[in-house]
Amino acid sequence: MKVKVISVLEDNYMYLVIEESTRDAIAVDAAVPKRLLEIIRKEDVVLRAILTTHHHWDHARGNEELARLCPGLRVYGADERIGALTHKVTHEQELTFGAIRVRCLFTPCHTSGHMCYFMWEDGSPDAPALFSGDTLFVGGCGKFFEGTAEQMYTNLTQILGALPKETKVFCGHEYTVRNLKFALKVEPENEIVKKKLAWAKQRDDEDLPTVPSTLQEEFLYNPFLRVTEEPLQKFTGKTDPVEVLRTLRTEKDNFKKPKERPNPPAMLAFDWGLFSPFLEKK
Ligand SMILES: [Zn+2]
């Protein structure tokens, strides 16, 4: 199977997965139909299905249009709010597209109906792929909009974290540089964070994606997967892994990259003389 990484909107990723023997294709998070259709035409494949990770517009807004343009298109997801949904899937449900196998992994928290998709081909030497939407990012994790730290902890450790270490991680956004700057604040001594950040900056300069990473790598620099490590406990002042994760998320929510060089506040030129007639009336 071949995965095409398509950057759309400001920093989103849309993916097209191609089953090479049948030339069928599956899209993950089809936000921009025009871009997707261009690539489908260029690759000469037939779009059979869309897998939507969650209902947010920057992941799902192309569904209706694509369903209209591609009769018989199947739209999978776990949330009724997903546009043009035809197949509601549940945790650990498996789907087959030619030689491609998909396991749905329910990871509620960023949204209450968030689904990740784990994909592989039987008998293929290629590493499996995880489409992690806005649950797991390269170097980070999604905001807890509709869920709790307990849920994200389960998602990251028991569901996604338990997948084979060589799994390639294809996430929903290009947030890597920002995420790793925060990771470096959390673990200033972590050499792997420093190295990955330097690499990600370089990719950014060249306008190249930082996906995919591997799960194995993520465990070395992603603070949200490292909640039992001593530097994380030190940074958050907590020991319980769920509390470490909760504090980490709050810190990340408040983490802003420092402004370049803020301008000094503008001096107000104020001529009291102009207002004196009014002032005198008082
Ligand atoms: Zn989202």
* Low-confidence blocks of residues: 265-282
Helix content: 25-40%
Spatial shape = globular
Query: What value does the Rg take, in angstroms?
Result: 23 Å
Share of β-strand residues: 15-25%
Structural class: alpha/beta
What are the key terms here?
282 residues, alpha/beta, Metallo-beta-lactamase, Chain A, 6-stranded mixed β-sheet, binds zinc ion, Clx_II_MBL, hydrolase, RibonucZ/Hydroxyglut_hydro, metal ion binding
Explained architecture:
Keywords: Hydrolase, Metal-binding, Zinc. Belongs to the metallo-beta-lactamase superfamily. Glyoxalase II family. With 282 residues, the protein is an alpha/beta fold. The protein has a single domain, classed as Metallo-beta-lactamase, Chain A, CATH 3.60.15. Helices cover 34% and strands 23% of the residues. The protein is built from ten helices and 14 strands. The strands form three sheets. It has a six-stranded mixed sheet with strand order 1-2-3-4-5-6, covered by helices on one side. Strand 2 (12-19) and strand 3 form a beta hairpin. Helix 5 runs antiparallel to helix 6 (191-205). The protein starts with a strand and ends with a helix. The protein binds zinc ion. Zinc ion binds next to loops. Zinc ion binds at residues 54, 56, 110, 134.
